[in-house]
């Protein structure tokens, strides 16, 4: 087992446990008559299966097992997103998310085929034998599968469709399972991927583009869960960049810190939604009503913003340093992306749990609140974020590097100073933006930019074209292919009817005639059996004479 597999195998259930407990109370359905709420057994079972599939994925040592787990994760994600299928649009969104990631899944099949063609084995241990064009095909397939799964541009918009699922589903999917599968594949196979010269620039470009685009989208979003979804794409983009820069260990640690942070923020958003019956950030501001939830959310928001000495700030600074090992200008751009993280994290915290007006508080109080179990789940994840802040303690980072057998880059003073300045600037701009955000009404331009710059619209057109083509093929199949099959069936039925009317008489007559012929032949044959010896001798002599005549004729010819 590699260090990446071990870390994921431990972190996934650690994150999943409080989320599943949260879901048992958050999604409980009321029972008629005022009795106790009924726990969502189906949802809890699906979440548990989702975790099991993810565990199988991260523990796989060959492509056959990996593909089975990969398919199970995709199927579970579809079922979870469409869990509340009665709501309009949920099935469509689940299908949309499934199709986008399914397209990327083809890359993993290509990678597995290339690995088998080059090594004769599906085992990861034999991948070192890959070379030549098969290695390029393998890397291309793995990059496609991982990019789609981890919501990198241009696949990022599927995360917005995934927001149709319940809050616990969003928390688990974004923090430690579905999206994490992509970066796990990159970290797990980094030695083979980095053997191809073009992998590093492609990974850095994908990651940096997604970090900047996701950051801008999150800064403009007014929907709490979609803001966090865009943030997920951006943070995984930073992990891609770290892996492309040659530091998969940094990406691995950022996954861990991000998992605790993002899970906590999603649970906090779910609690806020239950109080105001909306995910609109402008309808919340529940800081006075929910001081404990607001405090836990603030811990996670500050960590996401990159505020020292919280956990995600340590791994974010390592990513900036990793980028600086490639080029100083790259470190500057990554620091700007980190500043965007501070901006949208500030927006989320102040809009969701800032101080609100008294009329908003009275409206929120009139709605059903949250249970103690939901709050405890949130507090545990926030406590995990605080505990991971020990990474800033001298020597802890080096000890972790030795434990995981990875290498962390040394921090340069100017990169740290620049990054912290941009974080402070992001927080200031976020607070300024919140003061100007007085309503949920947005301009059409901002709405389009907040929806991944119109990518979903373009993608929908492509999907519609594919669906039209598929319907055309279906009609061709019905009219052409099935027509031949139906014609054959009709011809067979006609033969059966013909046989029923005329065939049976003809067959019975032929059978009777054959029986009569055999009977006649038997009677003739019996005439030779008289029982007299001279008749037999005469027959033998006649037979010998016939044979001699035939042989003589053959000799003369």
Automatic annotation (TrEMBL):
Q: What is its main location?
A: membrane
Entries under InterPro entries matching the protein: ND/Mrp_TM (IPR001750), NU5C-like (IPR003945)
Q: Which Pfam families match?
A: Proton_antipo_M
The organism sits in which domain of life? Bacteria
Topology relative to the lipid bilayer, per the entry, is: Multi-pass membrane protein
Subcellular location(s): the record lists: Endomembrane system; Membrane
Q: Where is the NADH:quinone oxidoreductase/Mrp antiporter transmembrane domain?
A: 60-339
Transmembrane segment boundaries? 6-25, 37-57, 63-85, 106-125, 137-160, 172-191, 197-220, 293-315, 327-350, 371-393, 413-434, 536-556
Q: Which UniProt keywords apply?
A: Membrane, Transmembrane, Transmembrane helix
Instruction: Name the PANTHER family on file.
Output: NADH-UBIQUINONE OXIDOREDUCTASE CHAIN 5
- What is the name listed in the Swiss-Prot or TrEMBL entry for this protein? NADH-quinone oxidoreductase subunit L
